[in-house]
């Protein structure tokens, strides 16, 4: 069920979260002790989290076996509180209610619409505080002693100057072995412990699944990461019966995510490259979506489509790192504008460089109609952490909020394309912006 | 390439404009691929279809009797919807050509994908 979270990269069970280690003191040993305290101060929370994780995985395995059986037999309902941790954000917010009766747990997932446009980190952390307490009673202590583990460490900021990731990993590993008697296994552990130490927080958690949620069963070769692709599709307002075009589809990742989630539309993908189209065709076949998605070998600046014939355009504009962009971005936008219906939506993934070339040389003309003219300032707030409604929200250090205000470039309208929203996303090594435009109706309203 | 897709395509050869529709279809290899029937989807596509173009293309492929226009109350008429579903979605042109009616320029269809690049623009991935 958790696998239905489409724009989350990975899901973790949070064990501990606290303020960053104070590294100003030069005494390495002291910090060493602090790290060990992560484990030794509160072994209970460790054991609880492990048992929850075990339950989750058992349930997952059982669900697969009982595919024929009545769903009533094994259900789970879990409380989920999505908290945003890092600055670069992108995902959809989930709200669930929680109930826990021994092993009779019911699981429901409701997706909240993007009306609020709140986006979360590329790594979502799952917090099950209440669940932990009850799980302690219900869990019946599965044998915790024969677990093998591996510690994965990421350090940045001040801590990284004093300790290397390996050192931290070793400190934590040894402490774990001493506290719980678990054995370390670097190749194929039962549990992976993730530790992130930086200037903003110190977090420890366990990933719920081995493979990141972002890796999809139905995509053979991914181009753009599927979480961002899905998120773009969901911002695009794909309605039933729409004609959706990706004029630079590459391997078709965006179209695959969209067609999977919103099957009642006609999807068309286009690319200039033979090799990419071949890959796309493979992907479509593997996903069983060949019927929903048509492929064309055409150029994005010369689309063989009549004007005003497309309802939605979603595209990842090549950044120039992996693939060359043959034409300049303005020509591309112009052609997209031409084929788009009035009232249609364009969602683009742009690099910082693209944003700059769209901002330079374009006078920010004030349109005569105010329709659809929301500036992208609300987007800045949308990057911020939503307060959890169940009361277990995280307090955000003020530095986080301030830095987000400056992060969004203000792109002016492009012809009749009015900017609606903008989201900054992390693509791992680089950042990008999801930009949404709406085509306004012809002048004169 | 399905007939539904063909119905949306128009020639982008310079200077041709709306006279570039519809593209004349020739097929040397056609496959019938069964597709799950979704009446709602078909009903939504019907108003978007350019019927003359569809009929012309279907006739070129000798698909037999093709309705020349949507029936009154087509949304509820399952027979009609099934027929349209078959014509629009289940016929795949695997090999053939598309020709711009105005300029005469010919574009090949290879393994189901029409190549409509105007200049020599292929990039290697």
From TrEMBL, chain A:
The domain of life for this entry's organism is Eukaryota
Could you state one GO cellular component term attached to this entry? nucleus
Q: Please report the stretch or stretches of sequence annotated as the THUMP domain.
A: 91-208
GO MF entry, a single one:
tRNA (guanine) methyltransferase activity
Alphabetic keyword roster? Methyltransferase, Nucleus, RNA-binding, Transferase
Where does this protein chiefly localize? Answer: nucleus
Keyword Transferase found = yes
Query: Basic and acidic residues compositional bias: what residue ranges?
Result: 371-380
Which GO biological-process labels does this protein carry?
tRNA methylation
**Region (Disordered) location:** 359-403
Localization, UniProt: Nucleus
Q: Which Pfam families match?
A: THUMP, UPF0020
| Compositional bias segments (type: Polar residues) | 390-403
User: Where do transmembrane segments lie in this chain?
Assistant: none
- Per the record, what are the reactions this protein catalyses? guanosine in U6 snRNA + S-adenosyl-L-methionine = N(2)-methylguanosine in U6 snRNA + S-adenosyl-L-homocysteine + H(+)
Function in brief? Catalytic subunit of the THUMPD2-TRM112 methyltransferase complex, that specifically mediates the S-adenosyl-L-methionine-dependent N(2)-methylation of guanosine nucleotides, most probably at position 72 (m2G72), in the U6snRNA of the major spliceosome. This modification in the U6 snRNA affects the constitutive splicing efficiency of introns that have suboptimal splice sites and can impact final mRNA levels.
| Binding partners and assembly | Part of the heterodimeric THUMPD2-TRM112 methyltransferase complex; this complex forms an active tRNA methyltransferase, where TRMT112 acts as an activator of the catalytic subunit THUMPD2.
What family is this?
Belongs to the methyltransferase superfamily.
The molecule here is called U6 snRNA (guanine-N(2))-methyltransferase THUMPD2
Classification from the root reads: Eukaryota, Metazoa, Chordata, Craniata, Vertebrata
TrEMBL record, chain B:
InterPro entries linked to this entry: Trm112, Trm112-like
Q: What is its main location?
A: cytoplasm
A GO BP entry is:
tRNA methylation
What's one GO MF term for it?
methyltransferase activity
UniProt keywords (A-Z) are: Cytoplasm, Methyltransferase, Nucleus, Transferase
Q: Does the keyword Transferase apply?
A: yes
Compartment(s): Cytoplasm, Perinuclear region; Nucleus, Nucleoplasm
Which Gene Ontology CC terms are recorded? Answer: nucleoplasm; perinuclear region of cytoplasm
UniProt similarity note: Belongs to the TRM112 family.
Protein name in UniProt: Multifunctional methyltransferase subunit TRM112-like protein
Q: What organism is this sequence from? A: Phyllostomus discolor (pale spear-nosed bat)
């Amino acid at each position: 069920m958790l696998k239905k979270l489409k724009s989350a990269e990975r899901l973790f069970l949070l064990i501990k979260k606290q303020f960053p280690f104070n590294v100003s003191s030069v005494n390495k040993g002291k910090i060493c002790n602090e790290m060990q305290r992560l484990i030794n101060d509160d072994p209970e929370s460790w054991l609880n989290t492990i048992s929850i994780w075990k339950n989750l995985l058992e349930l997952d395995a059982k669900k697969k076996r009982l595919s024929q059986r009545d769903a009533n037999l094994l259900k789970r309902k879990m409380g989920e509180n999505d908290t945003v941790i890092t600055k670069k954000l992108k995902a959809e917010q989930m709200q669930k209610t929680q109930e826990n009766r021994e092993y009779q747990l019911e699981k429901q997932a409701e997706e909240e619409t993007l009306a609020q446009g709140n986006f979360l980190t590329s790594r979502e952390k799952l917090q099950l505080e209440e669940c932990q307490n009850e799980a302690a009673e219900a869990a019946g202590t599965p044998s915790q002693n024969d677990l093998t583990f591996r510690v994965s460490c990421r350090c940045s900021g001040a801590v990284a100057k004093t300790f290397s990731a390996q050192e931290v990993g070793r400190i934590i590993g040894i402490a774990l072995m001493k506290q719980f008697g678990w054995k370390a296994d670097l190749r194929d552990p039962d549990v992976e412990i993730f530790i992130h130490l930086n200037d903003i927080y110190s977090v420890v958690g366990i990933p719920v699944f081995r493979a990141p949620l972002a890796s999809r069963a139905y995509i053979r070769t991914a181009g753009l990461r599927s979480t961002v692709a899905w998120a773009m599709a969901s911002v695009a307002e794909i309605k039933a019966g729409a004609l959706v075009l990706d004029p630079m589809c590459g391997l078709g990742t965006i179209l695959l995510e969209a067609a999977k989630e919103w099957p009642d539309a006609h999807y068309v993908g286009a690319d200039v490259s033979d090799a990419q189209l071949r890959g796309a065709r493979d992907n479509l076949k593997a996903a069983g979506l060949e019927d929903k998605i048509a492929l064309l070998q055409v150029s994005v600046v010369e689309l063989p489509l009549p004007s005003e014939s497309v309802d939605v355009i979603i595209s990842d504009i090549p950044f120039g790192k992996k693939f060359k962009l043959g034409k300049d971005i303005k020509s591309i936008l112009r052609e997209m504008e031409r084929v788009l219906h009035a009232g249609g939506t364009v969602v683009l993934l742009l690099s910082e460089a693209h944003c700059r070339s769209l901002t330079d040389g374009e006078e920010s003309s004030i349109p005569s109609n105010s329709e659809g003219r929301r500036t992208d300032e609300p987007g800045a707030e949308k990057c911020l952490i939503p307060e959890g409604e169940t009361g277990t929200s995280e307090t955000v250090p003020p530095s986080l909020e301030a830095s987000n205000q400056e992060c969004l470039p203000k792109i002016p309208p492009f012809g009749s394309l009015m900017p609606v929203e903008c989201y900054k996303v992390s693509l791992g090594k680089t950042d990008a912006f999801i930009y949404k435009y709406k085509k306004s109706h012809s002048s004169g309203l | 390439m399905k007939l539904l897709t063909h119905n949306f395509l128009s020639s982008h050869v310079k200077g041709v404009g709306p006279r570039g529709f519809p593209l004349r279809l020739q097929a040397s290899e056609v496959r019938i691929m069964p597709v799950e029937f979704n009446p709602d989807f078909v009903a939504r596509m019907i108003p978007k279809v350019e019927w003359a173009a569809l009929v012309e293309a279907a006739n070129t492929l000798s698909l037999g009797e093709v309705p020349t226009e949507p029936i009154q109350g087509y949304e509820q008429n399952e027979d009609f919807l099934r027929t349209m579903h078959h014509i629009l979605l289940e016929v795949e042109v695997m090999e053939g050509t598309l020709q711009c009616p105005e300029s005469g320029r010919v574009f090949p269809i290879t393994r189901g994908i029409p190549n409509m690049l105007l200049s020599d623009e292929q990039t290697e991935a």
